[in-house]
Design a protein that fits this description.
By secondary structure, the protein is α/β, with parallel strands linked by helices. The protein is built from nine helices and nine strands. It has a five-stranded parallel beta sheet with strand order 2-1-6-5-7, sandwiched between helices. A two-stranded antiparallel ribbon has the order 3-4. The chain has a two-stranded antiparallel ribbon with strand order 8-9.
Length: 256
Amino acid sequence: MRFDIFTLFPEICTPYLNESILKRAQAAGLVEVAVHNPRDYTEDKHRVTDDLPYGGGGGMVMKPEPIFAAVEAVLGIRAAGQDDPGVPIVLLTPQGRPFTQAVAQELARHPRLALICGRYEGFDERIRQHLATDEISIGDYVLTGGELGALVIVDAVARLLPGVLGDPTGAEDDSFASGLLEYPHYTRPAEFRGWTVPEALLSGDHARIAQWRRREALRRTFLRRPDLLFNLELSEADKRWLGQVAEEIVATRPAS
């Protein structure tokens, strides 16, 4: 899969892309990431990419010409936005739809993805209306630019691609992949400062380990993100276990 990131500050992205899993995925030819600077597509000697907003107000607005020129040249499309470009063109913006694991899975089905990073006060609206095909937000807060959001999307999508993770089933156990938060993890030593690893994990009984992990994932989700449970189809065994967890919570509450 190929990712094209459009940013005025490519040096922000490069260090993260050249480390760890993403570095190995690129070296193996599983992922290709290209970073493009819209300044390289300007036609004036000062390479201007922003200007004052019409109507007044503080801050600067990203101009449409460099963004359109960069995206159209890199993707090899003309009159972008008027015909289906065949590639999702995503604006990173607080106004976009929330980025979730389900959205990552949706994007991972495409062979190529373009990500446009905003700066300053935002984009000229014509970029939003006539170039972008999607808008995504990584959270209800405002960042200095869209680069961190683009890197979040690249990371989350890339790890879903076959071969990117060393463990073929690694992404299946991640938090949110199954709709639940992930179960707790332990490693050696079996005892540390008097704190021990749950006996089920030491038993060697795979069915028992799977049951413990399922129950602890349910427990953790119930305690930290109960809203996620409303979207899941729970078995009768799951429901009974959650009932037990709820009873434990009530039993341990201090008397008023």
